[in-house]
Design a protein that fits this description.
Elements lengths: L1 H40 L2 H6 L1 H7 L8 H22 L15 H36 L10 H32 L13
């Protein structure tokens, strides 16, 4: 039951992260195209040979505040993808020396690093929460769009909490696997190299 809950949480966060990332890709494409069209409209060639087209192209431009939206959205997306990566062992590993040690030692190494990562995810969530409170209290906004900075902190905090929950579950599951020999994780293939 808990494995299915963790799987659902990780997949929903990955889906949300994917949707945000897709929207950011579209935003950047539109912004770059608008900037390019505007530059073309100011070119000597287009201005000389097609002044009406040049005037039309000058109306295009980059999306206002695109950098601010990308900055906030990417932060959320990173945290949103962490749970699925953690749950399925998708982090890159270097196995040169660990392939030579017994399976029990490998399980101990994996459990150790799962605990360390879970601790770091909890620490990051706590610090994001403190940053969120600070930004809410001081009323800081972005430069161009003037949206409150705490919105980006909130989105990242939600992603980091999901990552921390899945990270703590994975740490407990890896310790249980070390102690009992039974897996409490979904089937994983790890990072494909």
């Amino acid at each position: 039951m808990i494995i299915k809950t963790m799987e659902w949480l990780a997949r929903m966060m990955a889906l949300a992260g994917g949707l945000v990332l897709t929207a950011l890709v579209v935003l950047v494409c539109v912004s770059v195209a608008g900037r390019g069209l505007n530059t073309l409209g100011h070119s000597d060639f287009v201005t000389a040979f097609a002044p009406a087209v040049a005037d039309m192209l000058k109306n295009f431009g980059p999306v206002k505040g695109d950098f601010e939206m990308v900055e906030a959205g990417i932060a959320f997306s990173i945290f949103a993808f962490l749970p699925i990566c953690q749950l399925h062992g998708g982090h890159a590993t270097v196995d040169i020396f660990t392939n030579l040690v017994p399976k029990t030692a490998n399980r101990a190494i994996v459990a150790f690093w799962e605990v360390v990562l879970a601790g770091l995810l909890v620490l990051i969530s706590w610090r994001l929460y403190e940053g969120l409170l600070s930004k809410m209290n001081n009323g800081e906004t972005t430069f161009l769009l003037q949206f409150p900075i705490w919105w980006a902190y909130l989105a990242s905090f939600i992603g980091s909490v999901a990552a921390a929950i899945v990270g703590v579950y994975c740490a407990i599951a890896r310790i249980l696997m070390l102690v009992t020999g039974r897996s409490h994780m979904p089937r994983t293939e790890g990072a494909v190299h």
